[in-house]
Amino acid sequence: MIKALRGMKDTLSPLSQKYNFFIKNTTDIVKKYGYNFIETPLLEETALFKRSVGESSDIVGKEMYQFTDKGGNDVCLRPEGTAGVVRSFVENKLDRQQGQKYKFFYYGAMFRYERPQKGRLRQFHQFGVESFGESLVYEDVSIIQMAKEILDFFGINYHLKINSLGCDKCMPSYKDDLKTKLNSIDGLCEDCKRRRETNPVRVFDCKNENCQNLIHKLPRIKDSLCESCQNDFETLTSMLNDLNIEYEIDSNLVRGLDYYNKTAFEFVSSDLGAQNAVAGGGRYDRLVEFLDGKSTPAIGFAIGIERILDMIELPKTKRVGYYFGAMEDEAIEELYKQASYFRKKEKVTLSYDKKSLKAHLKGADKANSRYCVIIGENELKERKLWIKDLELKEEKLIDFFVQ
Ligand code: HAM
């Protein structure tokens, strides 16, 4: 038997119903904030992710589904959505539209060759948003508020962590200093030794307890911010306070992708296992320029759909539509005709099998239909439909609709 690849899953009902429920309602929320749908290819040039997500990240360093296509191009299945959206933004020259703001949302499959475990897949789905052209910190507040609104809508239990990762003014000298301090520490893990060279702040993200003990006393980014970053962070926290949005300032939060600056945030949930991040995002004001566009501030986040689906409960739906069943073989063609007529306007579940009334009523219940419509021997003779309202528990005979 051929099975799905490790870390890749089918989405069958009822999970697929949850997926649709999540997409529909999240789309409604982000549209209220002015976001429009964008779809970018699943496959992109590998260089796109190397330049955006960054060589120091685990994603680019270890987890890419990278291969050479038949035309000899070095390509990669997208490990995340932001890079493709930025590529599209630049390629479509939206960076050239003076003063314009663009807001996009997307959802779909992402691929990371990670070690699969609960909450961690190799093919997973994200719902993401990206906002371009707004440098003011109010947009950071708005985007966090929007993420919170989504999680609240689905009744998710979460905890918000925020941090500032500084900007081009305050970061370079901080990073140089950090690198020097890291160089004088022995015993860092191999990953941290690599991070020390490529993006030293990523050491704060290390899950290795020994590394955490070694770097415990090192200065954090948050304490070296320039005046502008400091002011923005203060406005952000004071506005979150005013909006009653609870948060924790986590000076170890650096995010696993290299493109971030200033605001970074993550929503984690204690209802999940070790992989507890439901959503993550932040500002990436330099990325458009890195990808050869005109400098444009930007911010976004993505929700891990599989992780959130685990915590969503579908609301109890009311019975809808009609279930059609026959109790005689000769009635099936007539049943089909009558059902087709109904289907023009109503949801119809049609059983082709001759069954007892009891079995059909059971089928109607399983299909969550409001009405069970039966043609038996007598009904066929008299050209009538027996119909039962499964909500009101009332039954009657009506004439065939199509003669
Ligand atoms: P990320 O933190 O790498 O950010 O991923 C966002 C979310 O995707 C995570 O919080 C998690 O819920 C989910 N996720 C990540 N990896 C896996 C996996 N292997 N299996 C299941 N779920 C996973 C980004 O991808 C950024 N592009 C977010 C962003 C948008 N930043 C700015 N704009």
List keywords for this structure.
single chain, alpha+beta, BirA Bifunctional Protein, domain 2, Rossmann fold, 2 domains, eight-stranded mixed sheet, binds histidyl-adenosine monophosphate
List the domain count as a whole number. Answer: 2
CATH topology of the largest domain: BirA Bifunctional Protein, domain 2
What oligomerization state is this entry in?
Answer: single chain
How do the strands line up in the largest sheet? 1-5-6-11-10-9-7-8
Please give the largest β-sheet.
Answer: 8 strands, mixed
Radius of gyration, whole Å: 28 Å
**Overall 3D geometry?**
elongated
Overall CATH architecture of the largest domain: 2-Layer Sandwich
Report mean pLDDT, rounded to a whole number.
Answer: 95
Distance between the termini: 49 Å
- Determine and state the CATH class of the largest domain: Alpha Beta
Q: Tell me the number of helical segments per DSSP (H or I, 4 or more residues long).
A: 14
The secondary-structure class comes to alpha+beta
Heterogens: histidyl-adenosine monophosphate
How many strands appear in the DSSP assignment? 16
Q: Which strand-content bin applies to the residues?
A: 15-25%
Order of helices and strands: HEEHHEEHEEHEHHHHEEEHEHEHEHEHEE
Q: In CATH, what is the homologous superfamily of the largest domain?
A: Bira Bifunctional Protein, Domain 2
Which spans have pLDDT < 50 for at least 5 consecutive residues? none
Helix content: 25-40%
